[in-house]
Amino acid sequence: YQRRVHGIPKVVETVADVDAVRASVPGSRVFLVRLTAALSTLEIRLQSRPFGGSIEWHLRRAAELCDVFAANPIGDVVIDVDGRSVEQVAQDVIAQWQDLSSVS
């Protein structure tokens, strides 16, 4: 038996969204990591990305999602990414997943 781990980057706003992911991979264990950052951080990061069209939709969506996540705090773990590198966040995700996996 070999365990396979897959990452599915997806905006998950509700428990129904989690259920949809779970249903798409029958028999799997879904480990939901919610990454958070201050809206100002999200705006800076978005403004540094190349977009083919208007960035306005992305900025509005970031603000909307901050509200959604505050009202609907789902996730196995929540990791604040403000001021952290991609490598630091990845190490934290792996550590949290390993901690949770050893308990279940």
Mean pLDDT: 87
Morphology call: globular
Our count of helices gives: 4
Unreliable parts: none
In total, the number of strands is 2
What structural class do the secondary elements suggest?
mainly alpha
In which order are the strands of the major sheet placed? 1-2
User: What's the order of the H and E elements?
Assistant: HEHHEH
Strand content: 5-15%
C-alpha Rg (nearest Å): 15 Å
Describe the sheet with the most strands. 2 strands, parallel
The span between the termini is 17 Å
Helix content: 40-55%
In short:
By secondary structure, this protein is mainly α. Helices cover 51% and strands 8% of the residues.
Written account of the structure:
The chain is mainly alpha-helical and 104 residues long. Helices cover 51% and strands 8% of the residues. It contains four helices and two strands. The protein has a two-stranded parallel sheet. Helix 2 runs antiparallel to helix 3 (56-71). The longest helix has 18 residues, at 86-103. It is globular and about 45 Å long. The relative contact order is 0.17. The model has no long low-confidence stretch (mean pLDDT 87).
Blueprint (SSEs and pairs):
Blueprint: H1 15-24, E1 33-36, H2 39-47, H3 56-71, E2 77-80, H4 86-103
Parallel strand pairs: 1-2
Helix pairs in contact: 2-3
Descriptors for this entry?
104 residues; mainly alpha; 4 helices; 8% strand
